[in-house]
Write a structure and sequence with these properties.
single chain, 337 residues, Heat Shock Protein 90, five-stranded mixed sheet, two-stranded antiparallel ribbon, 62% helix, 13% strand, Histidine kinase, transmembrane, transferase, Sig_transdc_His_kin_internal
């Protein structure tokens, strides 16, 4: 996604540059001089655009610090216009050997041109962002309605279900502790999915508690040859996350973990936060003949996970996969700010 975004930006600025060369070419000068002049403008306009949109807008405009935003924007454009005029004087003197225009006039031209183009490109970007946000909101609303309808279609009575589980639990021999423990673990998992996951976001700590219960449940199901390590420390309190995202990767690890009779079968899960970013690393050994579903393939679990991440977190997440002949590793980071 980042490479695609970089490609789009490169194509955009290259197109702008070619447009300037064609439109503003003066036949009294060589094409080399025209390309040099426009390239000089391109450098400072591009630098101003990214400085304003990536630094000044998030720090001041989004936080409604309007006077500082205006002053910072004017300062950056004025400084870049001064630098551009200074560079133009040097280029005219040392490369084209022509008498430079008065510095004040050159500075004024630079200030006007840079201001106009930065303003135009910024407005275009804001319009595109607004359209994309609106499209994402519409998609989220459609997904929400569809999910609600699917939930209503498949809805069962939680009370009746838990009463049934309690009945089953009561009929299990008290000496059969493993069976009773499995049922209790299953009951806790089901309770979380029924009562907690209806919200758009849940506490990250609750989600991790659910993951711990899921891992404990799987440990009861698997044999002793499987080694499962889970580390869920260093969690920043107060963070909230869309439910049942991380669990997809963990389910995949248990589904495709190896079953070697003569060497270690292992699953390693590490979840931690750094400020507002949650980091998840899931590793499992695998057998060579297992072709684990790749993130870009048609696997339902991964496909749904990636779709939800794109809708909910857009550019605020990364999901990577490392597949080797004897192990499989996925890494997911989400900025929850």
């Amino acid at each position: 996604m980042k490479n695609r975004k970089l490609l789009y930006h490169s194509i955009f600025w290259a197109s702008i540059y070619l447009l300037w060369v064609l439109v503003f070419r003066s036949y009294s000068f060589s094409i080399t001089k025209t390309m040099t002049v426009e390239f000089c403008y391109l450098i400072f306009i591009t630098a101003d655009f990214y400085a304003i949109n990536n630094l000044i807008v998030p720090q001041f405009l989004h936080k409604k610090r309007y006077p500082i935003f205006v002053v910072a924007t004017i300062t950056i454009i004025a400084l870049s216009a001064w630098l551009r005029a200074l560079v133009a004087v040097q280029i005219n003197q040392h490369f084209f050997h022509i008498t430079p225009i008065d510095f004040g006039t050159l500075y004024l031209f630079s200030l006007i041109n840079i201001s106009i183009w930065v303003l135009v490109v910024t407005i275009v970007k804001m319009l595109i962002d607004r359209i994309q946000i609106q499209q994402q909101l519409e998609l989220l609303e459609k997904e929400r309605i569809k999910s609600e309808l699917d939930y209503l279609k498949a809805q069962i009575s939680p009370h009746a279900l838990f009463n049934s589980l309690n009945t089953i639990y009561g009929h299990i021999d008290k000496n059969n502790k493993p069976a009773r423990d499995v049922l209790l673990q299953f009951s806790e998992l089901l309770k979380y999915q029924l009562y907690e996951c209806g919200a758009e976001k849940v506490d990250l700590e609750k989600e991790i508690a659910y993951i711990n219960n899921y891992v404990a449940f799987q440990r009861l199901r698997k044999d002793d040859k499987l080694v499962v390590n889970i580390e869920t420390g260093d969690i920043t309190p107060g963070l909230r996350i869309a439910p049942l995202l991380i669990i997809v990767l963990i389910e995949n690890a248990f589904k495709f973990v190896s079953s070697f009779p003569d060497k270690e079968n292992k699953i390693s899960i590490r979840i931690f936060t750094k400020e507002n970013v949650v980091n998840c690393c899931i590793f499992n050994t695998k057998e060579r003949q297992h072709h684990i579903i790749n993130v870009n393939s048609g696997g339902i679990g991964f496909a749904n996970l990636k779709r939800r991440l794109e809708l909910l977190y857009a550019t605020k997440y990364t999901l990577s996969v490392n597949v080797e002949h004897d192990f499989y590793e996925t890494n997911l980071t989400i900025d929850l700010a």
